[in-house]
Prior knowledge:
Elements: E1 2-15, E2 18-34, E3 41-57, H1 62-87, H2 102-137, H3 144-168, E4 169-170, E5 175-176, E6 190-191, H4 192-254
Antiparallel strand pairs: 1-2, 2-3, 3-6, 4-5
Helix pairs in contact: 2-3
Amino acid sequence: MECVNVDAAAQIGDRMGFSTNVATLEAETLKHETCVHCGMRYLYPLSRRAHGIGSSYFPFLNLIASMDAEEKANEHAYQRLKQKHANSFDPVRCPGCQGYQPQAIRELKRKRAWITLKVGLVATICTAPILGIIAQFAVSWLSAEVIWCVVLAELVLTVALAAGWWPLFNPGVGKTYLWGISPVLDDNVLTLEAHQAMVDARHEVRAQEELQAEERRAKTMAAQFQREANAAAKKQRQMQEMAERAKRDILEQGR
């Protein structure tokens, strides 16, 4: 798992040797799945992001405290990122039977139920003061009892909508309550056999590249050796010619 530091560890507190930092890490890993419908093993890239907070205290040593807090923040974010990769799933269709896995659907239900609750609660909280203002300036029949009934009805509706994701949402059988789900990452899904073949092909390409690089190095070394041998032979010939020339000069002087 290769992590990318999305946001450099940001210092959010620093006083008298006490430092607090927050870090954000993002990484992509290969998620292995075994289809519960047809038993096919496949994998797909799973990308997640995690935040981490670290604090440290070194009296009167702000720099050391900041560095230690940054390291703790990165470690905290890394551990949370590992947990997310282990426990998270993307709604990816099985390449064999085109079915979704139950754990991915459960995760989608939880996420969408939580979003529904948050949106509904915000809407409910905003309803009471808005209706109160309307009752005060425009509509006289909006009493406090009516407003509280509306708020209670919104709360009940919010809970009902959030709970409705479980019985009414299952893209595997065509139930797409409120809004549907588009299959994601289908183009990147590989069966285990296809992935292994791809890995083997990459290893073969890498081995070929290394072999070619070794051959180029061998040719370069051979050419260098040949140049050195030619230079040595040329030098030897020059020395021999000089020796013969000196010998002839000595013979001519003797005559």
